Amino acid sequence: MSANPSPTGMQPTATYDSTFLKACRREPVPHTPVWFMRQAGRSLPEYRKVREGIGMLESCMRPDLVTEITLQPVRRHGVDAAIYFSDIVVPLKAIGVDLDIKPGVGPVVDSPVRSRADLARLRDLTPEDVSYVTEAIGQLTRELGPTPLIGFAGAPFTLASYLVEGGPSRTYENAKAMMYGDPELWADLLDRLAGITAAFLRVQIEAGASAVQLFDSWAGALSPADYRHSVLPASRKVFEAVAPYGVPRIHFGVGTGELLRLMGEAGADVVGVDWRVPLDEAARRVGPGKALQGNLDPTVLFSTREAVEAKTREVLDAAAGLEGHVFNLGHGVMPATDPDALTRVVEYVHTHTAR
Question: How many CA atoms within 13 Å lie on the side-chain side of 313?
């Protein structure tokens, strides 16, 4: 049974009334919920220990390892939600794309997608392709009990950027060249990726994920006009595909201050905000009817305890008038972050916002 209300009318389990899900639904909460992007991973010594000698993609395909890594920050920090440990390129690997995650570099694609013939290599994703995800989420929901599990996937634009560029890029010249020079191929590529992404999220929700987050990590490289015309339709297709499940849908990108309203229009219930835009201003840009998530600068965690508390308080003060707020960083936890600093932030937010 899913941990969420479903299209068939199943009754929700204990996660439905969790602080995190109530905040996502813009309902009153006893305190502001907290979780951190990349909380399951690099900053934790226990993570580095269990990952020793195991490649990233292999780690994502071993249910017992995924379960342990996902649970580690819940045990250590007392966060209000777990995030499924995986990587945005996992569904691409699952359908046969020849890629690897190289340490210090990121995802590298052996044969970039540059033509319609290349596009034909991207087949549909089936639940059988990612059976290890279903198994891991089943294990996790049993262990987590009333703590919600967030599923996630990479958004079509960000996945397309990796596929077309062949790896990480600062300029996205090949992706943008296709977007401007062959808009029909570009639209077909993003539509295909939207289908793959939606299928990946459906697997996670049906296995028991209580919410999902769509990471459009590199959307900040786009102008609002380009985003609206060339990216938004594909992201909207993803959100519409999972809407019938009734789980909160979160949308996040980096450097997307000029895109916040559009990212909400794509279908998100919660709009993630990076550290560049204060939450009260972000709320004005997004408009009513959406919860916000964010947005402490991850580098603040390297400062003194007093400075961390002061900057955390600034975020909470800016969020004071919001309909719904989930406290998070404005991007992922950095590898050298002191885990104790994260634990203290959770405690501070819970205490400072207790109602």
Answer: 8
Catalytic residue, candidates 16, 26, 38, 227: 38
Q: What pLDDT was estimated at residue 187?
A: 98
Q: Which residues contact 283 (CB under 8 A, 6 or more apart)?
A: 292, 321, 322
| C-alpha angle 129-135-137 in degrees, rounded to nearest 5 | 110
Active site annotation includes 87:
yes
The mean of the pLDDT values for the chain is 95
Contacts of residue 52, defined as CB under 8 A and 6 or more positions apart, other chains included, come to: none
- CA-CA distance, 108 to 287, in Å (whole number)? 38
Cα distance between residue 355 and residue 353, in whole Å: 6
Which residue, 213, 282, 279, is CA-closest to 250?
Answer: 213
Among residues 51, 76, 202, 249, the one annotated as catalytic is 51
Q: Which residue out of 42, 236, 285, 344 is catalytically annotated?
A: 42
Question: CA 284 to CA 273: how far, in whole Å?
Answer: 12
Catalytic member of 162, 172, 227, 348:
162
Q: Residues 17-39: pLDDT tens digits?
A: 999 999 999 999 999 999 999 99
| pLDDT tens digits for range 181-234 | 999 999 999 999 999 999 999 999 999 999 999 999 999 999 999 999 999 999
Q: Is residue 26 among the annotated active site residues?
A: no
Burial of 354 (0-12, 13-18, 19+ CB in 10 A): exposed
How many other C-beta atoms lie within 10 A of the C-beta of residue 128?
A: 9
Which residues is 296 bridged to in the sheet? 329
Rounded distance between C-alpha atoms, residue 204 and residue 135, angstroms = 10
Cα 74 to Cα 39, 44, 68, 124, 353, distances in angstroms: 9, 12, 10, 33, 20
Does the annotation count 42 as an active-site position?
A: yes
Annotated active-site residue 297? The verdict is: no
pLDDT digits 0-9 by tens, 70-123:
999 999 999 999 999 999 999 999 999 999 999 889 999 999 999 999 999 999
In 3-state terms, what secondary structure has residue 328? Answer: strand
